[in-house]
Specification:
The complex is a heterotrimer. By secondary structure, chain A is mostly helical. Helices cover 68% and strands 0% of the residues of chain A. In chain A, helix 6 runs antiparallel to helix 7, helix 7 runs antiparallel to helix 10 and helix 8 packs antiparallel against helix 9. In chain B, strand 1 and strand 2 form a beta hairpin. The chains are: A mainly alpha, B mainly alpha, C alpha/beta.
């Protein structure tokens, strides 16, 4: 055990350091003040993600050498999870292909399965679901379903799965219906505060220096429009979120929004350098227009992909998390409960006897 | 996926290593000459041996088409710092630098999609999974991989059936984008929930057939392998980090 | 012999037990039918007899499941699966979903059990032959009819070489042609000495197939006995079970005050036509 974990840790450190040294843009040094310099930040997350994958591979390799198999990893997966994963992978591929290829909108919708498995079964199954989805999507799935670019983003999908698993484990996706207005209000404010803070930070770090959206002297029509569109989207999001929160009276809506934004931000950070370096920012989906717009503003490829990602990914992940939440709510209690993390997704402790496969008819006085 | 050519008969892991190394190599090499050489040697030549050249060209062009269009349009017309003007189209200009950059991207994309398509055309997924399982991958992971490959077309078929049923109930699937979007939910909903509803039955059926037994299972067949191929795989796999190193150290600047 | 000894089972998260103090025996070479109204506990009984409850689905089990006299509570699922095969209603969800031919599908079970390769092949052919589906060996399981898929599923169970088969309403989701296919196959298996426990709503099917029948009501065994006796017993109608056609005919004839002897011969004749 110690050997495996040490090997993993060693591999992680080696790859992380090597990656950061070779590809990280650290002319400024690791100075906390300017640590998130635009280009340095780009590679930072990706290098760490790759280091994590290599560490996992090191762990597996050592275990293989020791025992000729991968027992400790695969035993974490019970049959129910194993049955769910191919379905989840199929959801990812089909929805992702339909949205990416057919509708040219700047979101992906290719993580519903990953987040579903993460929530129900945990971070590792979620990660594997995401990873396999992207690999199979590229290498194995027949035309017209295959995608030439998905394989390169397998790491991103894995991280999304891990985050979904952690949110699930923390109980963020447990329904919280019929809460008093006060709680809903507090939850809404907190969620908006978090999202607002992240948005402001991102804006000032990654967008503000490139151009000013609302600068009246800016004569470029494209950017005035873009600026107003983004602002309108943000307002629509806030209004929509508040409406949803109070209409459904379900506090979890706030949690779902925050989870989506956080996951989206991380996904954007990791995927931007991949898109920039491997595909020069062009992936054949609706997001290319956004990248184009930012490059027109003068950003280099690295920054432009990040700017696009930080707009698309949080929206995409919010929609995805919300969809997964709806799916979870539509699933029967006992079905969820039998999954490894299912308990964290159930509301309250109420036992519902009608959920059985077969229950005896109404009792004539005799207790169970 | 029948085909008795020497390339087809190679071990699937070998073909996978070649495909991945080619794709990664094309990205790392950059420029135009490098990827072109790589494609000729590692994609076109094997495709010719395998007798799938025509199919390969057609499918990989199809695969790269959306990216290629975007890449060319974006870079030819909007390349920042482009000086040599080729033509004017109203407010936007095409530049030679943009064209050169677009060509670079195009070659890279074609290399990647060529490599992937070659793998897809000459390897059955089941073969690759069995080979990995023989080498120690858990039967559970193998199950997930195999089941995923079969589930995608099956689910699309079911979506088609549900679409037909919903249409018969009056669902409008033509028309404006908004209407089509709204039409998605009555189709996607039943597909997703229906599939999830089957999880319980499938789980029980699998466990009833000994699926939970730990360790390896008996395999009925597996693809052949050879020492020569093993050596080749290692060499190719080692070449990639060398390329990365070379690129980082600037040894490859002489390539156009 | 497969025996349930005073089994009480409650599903996870349920307030009431689905089975109470059920004791039942399935002897070698015997076909035991289980009948009962919906929600009476038939499926639960099948799940307990096969070991899936509680191993695969959780819940609390009191009492014992005995195989050849040994309490199997400590055995893991895959070891119980090698002794008791269980089939379900839906033919499609029983397919593994990872095989491209019927042969591989049927071989799935013994492959999981780690049986040596030659044995796997031998068992698979034996199972296919027993169900007369050898001609389907190269076909894609997903493209078969419901009845054929159900036969393939049962063949997959037989390949495990279990001592006992438990089938939960095997014809419930099949059309009449499929039902006939499966019924004939089961009759052949029974004639070859298999020990089968069939849960069924279609009492007509059990009439020709089962040696003994147990009636389950509200989680308890109401009564059991030789098949013909139980099916003719007037109590089963009160418990929500439809008697087989000849029995219903005989009763209708009696109610119409027809003499017993010709009514019985008429019933036999009609039985011969229907079957």
């Amino acid at each position: 055990m110690i050997v495996r974990w040490s090997a993993a840790l060693l591999a992680f450190v080696v790859v992380a350091v090597a990656g950061l040294v070779l590809f990280g843009n650290f002319e400024t040094g690791i100075d906390p003040g300017s640590f998130f310099d635009s280009e340095g930040a780009n590679s930072f997350a990706l290098v760490l993600a790759i280091a994590a994958v290599v560490a996992f591979a090191a762990y597996a390799a050592v275990e293989y050498l020791q025992t000729g198999g991968f027992g400790s990893i695969s035993s974490q997966f019970d049959t129910r999870t194993i049955v769910l994963m191919p379905l989840a992978i199929a959801f990812n591929i089909i929805l992702g292909q339909a949205v990416g290829a057919a509708l040219k909108i700047p979101i992906y919708l290719d993580s519903i399965g990953t987040i579903l498995v993460g929530a129900l079964a945990g971070p590792i199954p979620g990660a594997l679901t995401g990873f396999l989805s992207n690999i199979l999507w590229t290498y194995v799935v027949p035309p017209p379903f295959n995608s030439g670019v998905a394989g390169a983003f397998a790491v991103v999908a894995a991280v999304i799965g891990i985050m979904a698993g952690l949110f699930g484990r923390a109980g963020w996706l447990r329904p919280r219906p019929d809460r008093p207005i006060g709680q809903l209000f507090a939850g809404g404010v907190i969620a908006l505060a978090i999202v607002g803070f992240l948005a402001f930070y991102a804006y000032s770090r990654f967008y503000g220096t490139a151009f000013a959206f609302f600068n009246p002297e800016n004569t470029d029509l494209l950017f005035s429009i873009l600026g107003w569109v983004v602002a309108l989207l943000f307002v629509a999001f806030v209004v929509g979120f508040i409406a949803l929160l109070f209409l459904r009276r379900d506090l979890t809506v706030a949690y779902v929004v925050v989870a989506g934004v956080l996951t989206g931000a991380v996904a954007a950070l990791i995927s931007a350098p991949i898109a920039a370096n491997v595909f020069s920012g062009v992936t054949g989906s609706g997001t290319d227009f956004l990248v184009l717009a930012f490059r027109r503003a003068g950003s280099d490829i690295q920054t432009a992909t990040l700017q696009q990602g930080l707009l698309s990914d949080p929206v995409d992940k919010m929609v995805t998390f919300f969809t997964v939440y709806l799916i979870l709510n539509a699933m029967a209690r006992r079905m969820k409960a039998r999954f490894p993390q299912g308990e964290r997704l159930l509301e309250g402790d109420e036992l519902d006897p009608d959920d059985d496969l077969e229950t005896p008819p109404a009792p004539q006085g005799a207790p169970a | 996926m029948t085909g008795g050519s020497p390339w087809h008969r190679l071990n699937p892991l070998t073909k996978l290593v070649v495909a991945t190394a080619t794709a990664v190599g094309a990205v790392v090499l950059g420029g135009i000459a490098g990827p072109v050489l790589l494609v000729a040697a590692a994609v076109l030549l094997p495709a010719a041996i395998a007798g799938v050249l025509g199919q390969l060209v057609r499918l990989s062009l199809l695969l790269s088409l959306p990216i290629a269009i975007s890449a060319v349009l974006i870079n030819v017309f909007f390349f920042p710092g482009g000086q040599t003007v080729l033509l004017h189209l109203g407010p936007i200009t095409a530049t030679a630098e943009g064209l050169a950059f677009a060509l670079e991207i195009l070659v890279r994309i074609l290399a990647i999609s060529g490599a992937i398509t070659l793998f897809y055309l000459t390897t059955r997924p089941a073969e690759l999974v069995v080979d990995l399982e023989r080498r120690g991958v858990s039967p559970r992971v193998a199950f997930v991989a195999n089941a995923s490959v079969q589930t995608v077309p099956a689910m699309v078929e079911r979506a088609g059936q549900i679409t037909a049923a919903q249409r018969a109930r009056g669902l409008d699937t033509e028309g404006s984008l908004a209407r089509r979007l709204r039409g998605i939910v009555p189709i996607v909903g039943p597909v997703i929930l229906g599939a999830i509803g089957e999880v319980e039955e499938r789980t029980m059926a699998l466990e009833a057939r000994g699926f939970t037994r730990p360790g390896r299972r008996t395999l009925l067949w597996w693809p052949a392998d050879s020492g020569a191929q093993r050596l080749a795989r290692w060499l190719i796999a080692l070449a990639v980090p060398l390329l990365v190193l070379g690129r980082a150290a600037g040894w490859l600047e002489w390539l156009p | 012999m497969l025996a349930l000894d005073a089994v009480t089972y409650r599903y996870a998260g349920a307030r009431r037990a689905a089975l109470r103090e059920v004791s039942l025996e399935l002897r070698d070479g015997e076909v035991l039918g289980i009948v009962g109204a919906s929600e009476a506990g038939k499926t639960t009984l099948a799940l307990v007899a096969s070991g899936l409850a509680p191993r695969a689905i959780g819940g609390t089990l009191r009492g014992r499941l005995l195989l050849d006299g040994d309490d199997v509570a400590a055995l893991p699922m895959h070891e119980v699966a090698a002794q008791v095969g269980i089939g379900f209603q839906n033919p499609a969800t029983q397919l593994s979903g990872v095989t491209e031919s019927v042969f591989e599908e049927v071989a799935f079970g013994p492959m999981n059990l780690g049986v040596p390769r030659d044995d796997v092949i031998a068992r698979t052919w034996d199972a296919l032959t027993a169900l007369r589906v050898e001609t389907l060996a190269e076909r894609d399981p997903a493209r078969l009819s419901g009845g054929q898929q159900q036969l393939v599923a049962i063949a997959g169970l037989l390949a495990l070489r279990p001592r006992h088969l438990v089938l939960d309403e095997p014809t419930a989701q099949l059309d009449p042609a499929g039902t006939r296919l499966v019924a004939e196959a089961l009759a052949r298996l029974a004639a070859d000495g298999a020990s089968i426990c069939v849960v069924e709503q279609k009492t007509d099917l059990l009439a020709g197939l089962a040696n003994r029948i147990a009636v389950i009501d509200a989680g308890r065994i109401a009564f059991e006995g030789p098949a013909a006796e139980v099916l003719a017993d007037p109590r089963i109608a009160d418990l929500g079970i439809t008697p087989p056609a000849p029995v219903r005919l005989a009763r209708a004839a009696a109610a119409a005050a027809l003499p017993a002897e010709p009514a019985a011969r008429l019933a036999d004749a009609i039985q011969g036509v229907i079957a």
